[in-house]
UniProtKB/TrEMBL annotation:
The keyword Transmembrane applies. This is Transposase IS4. InterPro entries: RNaseH-like_sf, Tnp_DDE_dom. Keywords: Membrane, Transmembrane, Transmembrane helix.
Length: 129
């Protein structure tokens, strides 16, 4: 069983909100689930998997500017701030630190709820204690 972990992080790379979806499901599902839990911020950095017009419009309605590169299949290229996008490495570092916990890296738990609780426990110990 594959899973995808979607996360909202602050500017220092600490996770604020986590969501687990099935591995074969599109990233749009995670984006839709996390949209209501977005904090009041000026920018949202995301990878190409979150490039959707409806998601960009939802962010604009909340007053958030998107820094998401466009998918390669787009007919019209999307402009984004490349210097700001380089800061997304903090998010990748956060995922790497979570995978330092063996239970998270090898995904011992079959149940997604138990797996998400293990991730939440690891994030709590690593970033908030």
């Amino acid at each position: 069983m594959n899973t995808k972990l979607h996360a909202i992080c602050d500017s220092q790379g600490r996770p604020l909100n986590l969501f687990v979806s099935a591995g074969q499901v599109s990233d749009y599902t995670g984006a839709k689930a996390l949209l209501s839990g977005l904090p009041d911020v000026q920018w949202l950095l995301g990878d190409r998997g979150y490039d959707a017009d409806w998601f960009r419009e939802a962010l604009k309605d909340k007053g958030i500017r998107a820094c998401i590169p466009g998918r390669k299949q787009r007919k019209k290229a999307i402009r984004y701030d490349k210097r700001r996008y380089k800061r997304r490495n903090r998010i990748e570092i956060m995922f790497g630190r979570l995978k330092d916990w063996r239970r998270v890296a090898t995904r011992y738990d079959r149940c997604p709820k138990v797996f998400l609780s293990a991730i939440a426990l690891a994030a709590l110990v690593i970033y908030w204690l």
